[in-house]
Amino acid sequence: MTEYTVEFVGTGETIEVADTETILQPCIEEGIAQEYSCRVGMCLACSAEIVEGEVTQPAARGLTDEEADEYALTCMARPQSDLVLDRGKYPPSIEDDAATAADEGAAADDD
């Protein structure tokens, strides 16, 4: 088992995470305010942009292959190196879905 340092951008928070555990586990244990919901890699609430480092997250079904290279779902991601993560950053597919929903809602209001 290898431990890696995970640093969160803009918070000054760092944790040590074993390569056998998800990033979310020590966040919860250490009282770090990491959002999460489903804990099965689908809802994307726990998404973070990977600024530096590598993770493995084969069960992160909510991400495309391209997104999985740039974003970590902390409920599924296991570190493969020291990491710098920017929490609360969502992949483009989520941002696009939110913008589409907002546009559809605005159009419905106009009717």
UniProtKB/TrEMBL annotation:
<keyword id="KW-0408">Iron</keyword>
<dbReference type="InterPro" id="IPR012675">
    <property type="entry name" value="Beta-grasp_dom_sf"/>
</dbReference>
<feature type="domain" description="2Fe-2S ferredoxin-type">
    <location>
        <begin position="4"/>
        <end position="91"/>
    </location>
</feature>
<keyword id="KW-0249">Electron transport</keyword>
<dbReference type="Pfam" id="PF00111">
    <property type="entry name" value="Fer2"/>
</dbReference>
<keyword id="KW-0001">2Fe-2S</keyword>
<protein>
    <submittedName>
        <fullName>2Fe-2S iron-sulfur cluster-binding protein</fullName>
    </submittedName>
</protein>
<keyword id="KW-0813">Transport</keyword>
<dbReference type="GO" id="GO:0046872">
    <property type="term" value="F:metal ion binding"/>
</dbReference>
<comment type="similarity">
    <text>Belongs to the 2Fe2S plant-type ferredoxin family.</text>
</comment>
<keyword id="KW-0411">Iron-sulfur</keyword>
<dbReference type="InterPro" id="IPR001041">
    <property type="entry name" value="2Fe-2S_ferredoxin-type"/>
</dbReference>
<dbReference type="GO" id="GO:0051537">
    <property type="term" value="F:2 iron, 2 sulfur cluster binding"/>
</dbReference>
<keyword id="KW-0479">Metal-binding</keyword>
<dbReference type="InterPro" id="IPR036010">
    <property type="entry name" value="2Fe-2S_ferredoxin-like_sf"/>
</dbReference>
<feature type="region of interest" description="Disordered">
    <location>
        <begin position="86"/>
        <end position="111"/>
    </location>
</feature>
